[in-house]
Structure formats: C-alpha cells, structure tokens
C-alpha cells in the first residue's frame, strides 16, 4: 500500500488529538474553583442528623413495594378507561381480576406486618 493512502487518516488523527488537547486546555483555563457551602440548612430548620446518601431503614422497603403496586395499578387503569367502551364486559372482568390480584397482595402485606410501624 502507498503511504499517500494513509495521509487522510493521519491528518484526522492529528486533528482529533489537537482538538482534545485544546478542549482540555480550555476546560482548565475556565474552570471555577468550587468550595463547599459554609451555611446552615435553608428552610429545613434543623441540622441533618445523617449523611444524605445514607441507607434507608429496612421498614421502608415494604412500603415502597406497596406504593409501586398501587402505582402500577394506576398505570394500567388509565389506558383501560379508553378501552372499556370498545371491548366491553371482558375488559371489566379483566380489570376486576387484576384488582383482585392486587388486593391479594395487599392482604399478604397486611398479614406479614408491612403496615405496622413498631
């Protein structure tokens, strides 16, 4: 192969390297030094007792799962309202079966103590 065939590739590679170098230099020159805030809480009123990225207590997980179940119920019910006039009785039966399964899940969560806070 001829060396002339590689000239456009070498030129493009050189342009990319120079462009990355110039962007790095530009970023270094206009970078602002950010210092952490030294003020108290804005409208919370109290100093935080734990780090914002700390883990949640385990009792919140069942509550989260129940919320997601009801959230999914609403996600399915909105389009269902548009389908009911076209489909008719089978759509109503299907939604009541879905709500029955959801109610069984709530009953299980209740039995397992997901709604107790002590």
- What radius of gyration results from the CA coordinates? 30 Å
Mean pLDDT level: 83
Structural class: mainly alpha
> What's the quaternary structure here?
single chain
Strand content: under 5%
Order of helical and strand elements: HHH
- Shape descriptor reads flat
Task: Tell me the total number of β-strands.
Answer: 0
**What's the story with the biggest beta sheet?**
none
Number of helices: 3
The helix fraction, in percent, is 55-70%
Q: Give the CA-CA distance, first to last residue.
A: 79 Å
- Uncertain runs with pLDDT below 50, 5 residues or more? none
Task: Characterize this entry briefly.
By secondary structure, the protein is mainly α. It is 64% helix and 0% strand.
Task: Summarize this structure as a short list of keywords or feature phrases.
118 residues; mainly alpha
